[in-house]
Amino acid sequence: MRKMTSWKLKGSAALLSASLLAGSFILTGTPAEASSSTSTNAGQVSSIQKSSLTSPITVQEFSKLLNAVAKGNGLEFKGLDGTGTIKRKDAAAAIYEWIELPESTSEYTDLSEAESEIAGALLKAGIMNGYSSTVFAPNQPVTISDAHVLIDRIEAYLTPFDITEATIAEMQTAMEQGKVTSVTLVQLYLARIHRYDDQLHAILTVNDKAVEAARKLDEERRTTGPRGPLHGIPIIVKDNYDTADMPTTAGCVCLKDSIPDNDSEQVARLKAAGAIIIAKANLDEFAFNITTSSSLGGQTLNPYNLGHYPGGSSGGTGAAIAANFAAAGLGTDTGGSIRIPSSLNSLVGIRPTIGLSSRDGIIPLALTQDVGGPMARTVADAAAVLEATAGYDAKDLVTTQSVGRVPDSYLSYLDKEGLQGARIGVVTQLLSGTKAEQNEVNDITLQAVKDMEKLGATAVHIEIPNYEAIMKFPSLSGWEFKFQLNDYLESLGEDAPYHSLEEIIASGEYLESHKSSMEARQARETLDDNEYRRIVLDRTKLTQESLLKVMAEHNLDALVYPASAEPAGKLGEGQNSGVNNRLSPFSGFPAITVPAGFTDGGLPVGVEFLGKAFDEGTLIKLAYSYEQGTLHRKSPALTP
After folding, report:
1. Are the C-beta atoms of residues 233 and 270 closer than 8 Å to each other?
2. From residue 88, how far is each of 27, 124, 607 by CA, in Å?
3. How far apart are CA 546 and CA 283, in angstroms?
4. Active site residue 64
């Protein structure tokens, strides 16, 4: 039962539905209420407009403000009794009783037990805070400027929570305010998957234990508090990441019943951070190509136009996150498989430095080039996932290179002014092409460069030294796949459905269009080969030296170019990404793709920033500044 204070409403307010209470607002500002604000509702009250903003507000003037909020939101409010100015504790009680906030507690030492519960509820809701963590100042009068701030915050609180395009930070705020739970988030996303995935074919497996996991995390939040930014957040992972509670198939019928004993390292880290793996996404079978077709999941479609490819090989993750099936996802990138589908689905994708994040438990394509990384709708969400998954892992010794090179927080690089004073190298060799689709992508990229300059950057048009020689090198997936896949199958032990690539080929249980590629890889007899060694050593050395040389000569913070040479291709006509995706895997350097706009036909286009080894923080800063300065991301009309 609520413990009432001296001020009471003239009758009960209308009950607010759960959906109306479900909104989000981030509490900001000083411990005391801000000294200035411009509330639309407050501006409607002429008597208040004539008063000084620092003057105390009367009970009746405050009542008029609350009534204006109520009318604007279709609610009932019958006013407050009393005369004179209103005190902070009485304003708190009026708001608390009107919108029926969930009970909470506070550590204010200058309040009674009942008053402390009310003040705690308003603090948690992001509506009203104290002068400090222990002082509420209950008898201080509410000023007009305080009232304006309170009204704005109430408006924000009453804004219905919408899962579509919600950010991780917004979800955390809504859960902290008690408006939604992790169970609610999971159920909302599962409903979207059920409603829309028959069109997209993006999901292979839904986690039937996701609601149970969410319920446990909700209880943990209540008892000990959240673990961090990902607590209770639903995530989708590409189905080449091992999951001990769901099959891991690489999209192949041959592995449809393969359930590994352990989670992959990145999945384990996500779970440790409190994330929920809600589903596993389709991919181009064994991550071979960039169209996302598999024998197990069929052809994934682009949510912006069902007649086009979603990119690949992480196209299932790309389509799913673009369509708001989860807060964020994980993809893998050997040649361009995070960045291409991110570009083609208006997403942010991060290909980390080789050695930043573990590849343990990821079905390999070519470990010389393989990485796993985040795909999300915003730079901030991608940074949160990267922060949870980066770091040393004894099971993947390449991560020894990350020791001492991982910042305390990638979220600290989210700077809207991040492009101020930055020097960006525009790679002119990757702005070539004569096709109409290429010209449109190039025009969008050049406009992005102009926008970066408006945001404070200096753009320098450059050419990569030894560009032609670098681009002549092949990917190493044709060399390494057989041997590394066989090692992975061996790691499954007795439960492995097949024990070698040769056995899989003999089974016929795979995508027919992949047959020639699989047979060519099976024909490789050894990696003890001079040509292979030359590629591994010379390609990496030449690419790294060439990139570092041009960056040093022009004092560049990053390079920029189209993430894909062309937008999403039409089904049946193939997907062309050009050679734009090669600089990052050939060098091992990190890259981040950010939405840059749409073609005249409504297909997304992304630009890619590339930086120096383990300089993900700088790339996040630049990408965030560009994203916030342009806001190109739009959700697909097909999945409202």
Report:
1. no
2. 18, 16, 50
3. 33
4. no
Q: What is the DSSP letter of 539?
A: I
634 as an active site residue: the answer is no
**Residue 541 appears among annotated catalytic residues:** no
Determine which one of 116, 264, 337, 475 is catalytic. 337
The angle subtended at Cα 29 by Cα 23 and Cα 35, nearest 5°, is: 110
The amino acid at 358: S
- 481-535: per-residue pLDDT in tens? 999 999 999 999 999 999 999 999 999 999 999 999 999 999 999 999 999 999 9
Residue reference for tokens 């409607």 = 44
Report the amino acid identity of residue 74.
G
Q: What is the pLDDT confidence band of residue 102, given thresholds at 50, 70 and 90?
A: confident
Instruction: Estimate to the nearest angstrom the gap between the alpha carbon of 285 and the chain centroid.
Output: 24
Alpha-carbon span 468 to 459, nearest angstrom: 23
3-state SS, residue 108: coil
Catalytic residue chosen out of the listed positions 39, 145, 264, 313? 313
Pairing of strands 458-462, 423-427: parallel
For residue 192, the surrounding DSSP H or E stretch is helix 182-200
The single residue of 89, 124, 179, 238 carrying the catalytic annotation is 238
Q: Which residue's entry shows tokens 């989860």?
A: 326
pLDDT digits (tens, 9 = 90+) for 394-428: 999 999 999 999 999 999 999 999 999 999 999 99
State the pTM of this model: 0.87
Contacts of 551 (CB under 8 A, 6+ apart): 425, 559, 612
Cα 542 versus chain centre, distance: 33
For 175-205, letters b (16+ CB in 10 Å) and e give bbbbbbbbbbbbbbbbebbeebbeebbbbbb
Structure-token pair, residue 476? 């190493």
Range 274-292 average pLDDT: 98
- Residue 46, pLDDT above cutoff 90: no
